[in-house]
Amino acid sequence: MTAALAVQRVYKRFGATEVLCGVDLSIEPGERHALIGPNGAGKSTLFNLIAGGGRPSAGRIELFGVDITRLGPAAVNRRGLARSFQNTSVFAGLSVFDNLRCAALFAERGRGSRWRRWTHARAASERAEQVLDAVGLGARAQVLAGTLSYAEQRALDLGLALAGGAHTLLLDEPTAGMNRAEAARAIELIRSATAGRTLLMVEHDMDAVFGLADRISVLVEGRVIATGTPAAIRSHAAVRAAYLGDGFER
Ligand SMILES: Nc1ncnc2c1ncn2[C@@H]1O[C@H](COP(=O)(O)OP(=O)(O)OP(=O)(O)O)[C@@H](O)[C@H]1O
């Protein structure tokens, strides 16, 4: 089967510093994959490269078999990969619904006849309605996005990626800055709203990682030292030594 996302022998150097040293990752369509590792391991650098925010020094990145190594962020996004940021990217002055409609319109942006543009506008509104419910913001549709709570803004941010039609999502610390109850709700929301899509997330919260991921890769000093199911990673001696610690019993 063609991988949804394939990272092949990827290196990244900044000057004399080698931050990524031959990273391989293969993520199946529909898989939820978490990337964990200590601070400075290179997780954000790898995310940037996948999303088109930089070029690897060497190696190749494929999205559903298509080489995206040298594409910029907009071109990668057009091919169905969306990245959500810790700093949410919602339009504060627009309503929740209009945020979602804009994302859907942008994805549906139609050229051609007036009739075709009208049908695109209608399809965008319908998609916005669907996503609104999927991310649990149905009751907040007409509220200005800037007045949402932080957790709601993260939900809307996820909604923007879904409304844009992304089949592959990169989530950057989706529960960062949330209390335990908010984080637990966010995990459930991500699980239900992204069903059937491919997910790669960087996350430090081990409840979120072990609760959501089908497989986990552990990055240490620019190298993937282990990839496996949560159970395999939990009991992996090198992972425990390098990252989880011996007190980790979840
Ligand atoms: N543009 C850059 N120029 C030079 N060094 C960089 C650059 N970007 C990142 N680095 C270095 O690369 C290393 C990896 O950083 P990165 O942010 O990818 O790690 P991380 O695993 O995401 O860490 P954290 O969990 O703290 O976010 C760090 O030592 C960082 O200082």
The largest sheet has its strands arranged as 6-7-8-3-9-10
CATH architect. name of the domain at 1-77 and 212-250: 3-Layer(aba) Sandwich
Discrete helix count: 9
* Topology order in helix (H) and strand (E) letters: EEEHEEHEHHHEHEHEEHH
Radius of gyration: 19 Å
Number of E strands: 10
Strand content: 15-25%
Which blocks of ≥5 consecutive residues have pLDDT under 50? none
**Main sheet, how many strands, which sense, barrel?**
6 strands, mixed
**Head-to-tail CA distance between termini:** 32 Å
Shape: globular
Portion in helices: 25-40%
Mean pLDDT: 89
CATH topology of the domain at 1-77 and 212-250: Rossmann fold
Task: Name the ligand types.
Answer: adenosine-5'-triphosphate
In CATH, what is the class of the domain at 1-77 and 212-250? Alpha Beta
Name the CATH homologous superfamily of the domain at 1-77 and 212-250: P-loop containing nucleotide triphosphate hydrolases
Protein structure class: alpha/beta
Describe the structure.
With 250 residues, the chain is α/β, with parallel strands linked by helices. It has a domain at 1-77 and 212-250: Rossmann fold (3-Layer(aba) Sandwich). It has helices spanning 43-50, 73-78, 96-108, 114-134, 150-163, 180-193, 206-212, 230-234, 237-244, and strands spanning 5-14, 17-27, 32-36, 58-63, 66-67, 81-84, 168-172, 198-202, 215-220, 223-228. The strands form two sheets. It has a six-stranded mixed beta sheet, with helices on both faces. A four-stranded antiparallel beta sheet has the order 2-1-4-5, covered by helices on one side. A hairpin with a 2-residue loop joins strand 1 (5-14) and strand 2 (17-27). The chain is globular. The model has no long low-confidence stretch (mean pLDDT 89). The structure holds adenosine-5'-triphosphate. Residues 14, 17, 19, 37, 39-45 line the site of adenosine-5'-triphosphate (ATP). Residues 14, 17, 19, 37, 39-45 line the site of adenosine-5'-triphosphate. Keywords: ATP-binding, Cell inner membrane, Cell membrane, Membrane, Nucleotide-binding, Transport. Residues 5-246 form the ABC transporter domain.
